[in-house]
Structure formats: C-alpha cells, structure tokens
C-alpha cells in the first residue's frame, strides 16, 4: 500500500511530464501557421509595392514628353532673327576693293573699310579752251561714311585739284555713280571742271573687278575728247598695261611699225613691244602716272611715269608718245 502511494505520485509526475512534452511539441505547429500567415500577409501586401501607382504614373516623366516638345527649342529654329542680324550686317559686306571704269573706259577704284570710303582713285580727261589733258588723282579719304547705301567722298590734292566721288550700292558686289574733278590745267592758269559717270564691282568678293571692261575700249562720252587724241590714247594704253590687258592695249593703240625707247631697251614693231610689256607685267611691274598730268602738243603727248615693282623700279620724268590716227608710232620713256 505504501509502495503504491509512493509510485502513484511518480506516475502522475511522469504523465504530467509527458503531457508537457506533448504540449511543447504541439506548440510549434500553430507558430509555423502563424508565421506562414504573417508571411502570406506580407505577401499579400506586396501587390501594393508592385502596383506602385505613383511610380508608374510618374507625372514628371510625362512632362518629359513636353520637354521633348520644348517650344523654346523649336523657337530656336526662329534663328531667323539671327539670319536677320547677318543681313543687317550687309553694310559690312561692302568692305573691300572696288574697281571699275568711267564712261570713257578709264579705270576708277575705291576702298571700303568698316562702312567708310577710305581711299579712291579717279582717272579723267579734260578740255579747257585750247588745252586738253588728263590725270589720275588718288588719295586717302576721311569722313566718308556709307549711309542708306550711298556715299560722297572728296579730297583735294597738293596742287589744289578737288575730286568728288558720289555713289550708290545696288548690292554687295555692284555700285554706280558720278564724279567731278575741278582743277587748273597744265597749260597755265586756265581751270577745268569735268564730270562723268562710273560703275564698279567689289573685286574682294567677285575675285576680279566686275565692272572692268574685257578690253581697253576707246569709246568715250560726248563730253570727252575722241580716242584718237594723244592724251586719251596714251592714258588708255598705259592704264591697259597696268590692268594686265597688254594684248588689248597694244592691239588697239599701237601702230604695227612702232619704234620705242624704254630706258635702255629699244626696238621696232608691235609684237616686240607687246612681248616687252607682257614680261614686265609678269614680273609684277606697275606703271603709274605722276599726278597723271598729260599734256599734248600737236600729235605728241608728254607725261611723267613712275614704275614700281619688279627688279628695277624707277621714275621716267620725260616720256613722249607720238600718235597718228589713234595709234602710237613712237614711244619714249626717259
């Protein structure tokens, strides 16, 4: 009996322990269910993350399509204003060396820098009473701006001759106008006042003067002396040589049997004279009238000449040309 009483409590304790073990082993099962529930709960909340409406909607991203539209960028193709700026700069496009002729075919030139006439050269002939002559006046010019495509440029040379050039630009490569020269003749105190028209081209743009004639033409206007006069013949001849139009100048103004003395060079015949001047021009020689005063007596024109460039630049103070029927029969440079 005593033994049973002792064992009973032990049995009860063992049974309790087993029950506890059973309980402990059963508890994890609900825990894992809870965990899986929790996980599935988080899993169910995950759709909100994937849906991310805010991310997909991204209104700012849609704005980027407006950014592609960029009205201001398209407005930049309104670089038309920029084009306008270039056109307004057309005043600057007048800059360069302008060369042309007057109505008598005599060369004329001027320089445009920064919308100003800065230099000009005018060749002309005159008739005053019994005195006829010609000249080529050149000088730098001040205070001659281009306004509304037009200009007036004036200078006075050391002998008191006043030269005025008036012109209008019809484009960046073409201009035309008039000139007036007032001065004293080489025949004494008689004065002259000569006027003429001119056309010119911008040789800096076109590569060569557009208004320069293809040949040295003897055509003159009604107010000028006929081209058979010694003054006009000599002026056209020398300026033709200087403009590198040797063939035309010699063919038009030189006699077939011309005799010539140029410094130490002498010869006879048009072909030889033509070959001489062509070789000089090829070496860069230029012939310039000194104050371009040409006087004539009978059929002989007298003039000074300055030779620049080449190997032997020099000045010939006593040059004469004998002209018969518009052709040079004898030419002397001394």
Q: Per CATH, which architecture of the domain at 95-212? A: Beta Barrel
Helix content: 25-40%
Please give the alpha-carbon distance between the first and last residues: 174 Å
Kindly provide the radius of gyration, computed on alpha-carbon positions and rounded to a whole number of angstroms. Answer: 50 Å
Q: How many H/I helical runs? A: 10
**The CATH top-level class label of the domain at 95-212:** Mainly Beta
User: Tell me about the biggest sheet?
Assistant: 15 strands, mixed
Which word captures the global form? Answer: elongated
**CATH topology name of the domain at 95-212:** Lipocalin
Total strands: the figure is 15
Series of secondary-structure elements, N-terminal to C-terminal:
HHHHHHEEEEEEEEHHHEEHEEEEE
């Amino acid at each position: 009996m005593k033994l049973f009483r002792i064992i009973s409590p032990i049995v009860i304790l063992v049974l309790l322990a087993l029950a506890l073990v059973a309980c402990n082993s059963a508890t994890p099962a609900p825990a894992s269910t809870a965990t899986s529930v929790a996980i599935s709960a988080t899993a169910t909340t995950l759709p909100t993350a994937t849906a991310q409406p805010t991310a997909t909607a991204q209104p700012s991203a849609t704005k980027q399509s407006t950014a592609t539209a960029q009205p201001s960028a398209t407005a930049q193709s309104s670089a038309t204003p920029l084009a306008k700026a270039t056109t307004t700069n057309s005043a600057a496009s007048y800059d360069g060396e302008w060369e042309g002729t007057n109505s008598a075919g005599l060369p004329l030139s001027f320089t445009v820098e920064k919308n100003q006439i800065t230099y000009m050269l005018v060749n002309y002939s005159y008739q005053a009473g019994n005195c006829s002559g010609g000249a080529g006046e050149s000088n730098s010019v001040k205070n001659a701006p281009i306004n509304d495509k037009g200009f007036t440029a004036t200078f006075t040379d050391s002998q008191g001759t006043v030269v005025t050039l008036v012109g209008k630009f019809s484009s960046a490569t073409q201009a035309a106008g008039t000139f007036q020269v007032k001065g004293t003749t080489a025949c004494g105190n008689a004065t002259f006042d000569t006027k003429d028209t001119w056309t010119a081209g911008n040789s800096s743009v076109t590569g060569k003067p557009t208004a320069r004639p293809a040949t040295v033409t003897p055509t003159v206007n009604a107010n000028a002396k006929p081209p058979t006069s010694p003054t006009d013949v000599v002026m056209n001849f020398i300026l033709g040589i200087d403009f590198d139009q040797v063939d035309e100048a010699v063919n038009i103004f030189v006699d077939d049997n011309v005799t010539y003395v140029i410094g130490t060079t002498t010869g006879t015949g048009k072909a030889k004279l033509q070959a001489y001047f062509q070789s000089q021009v090829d070496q860069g020689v230029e012939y310039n009238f000194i104050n371009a005063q040409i006087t004539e007596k009978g059929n002989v024109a007298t003039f000074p000449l300055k030779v620049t460039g080449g190997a032997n630049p020099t000045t010939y103070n006593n040059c004469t040309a004998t002209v018969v029927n518009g052709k040079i029969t004898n030419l002397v440079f001394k």
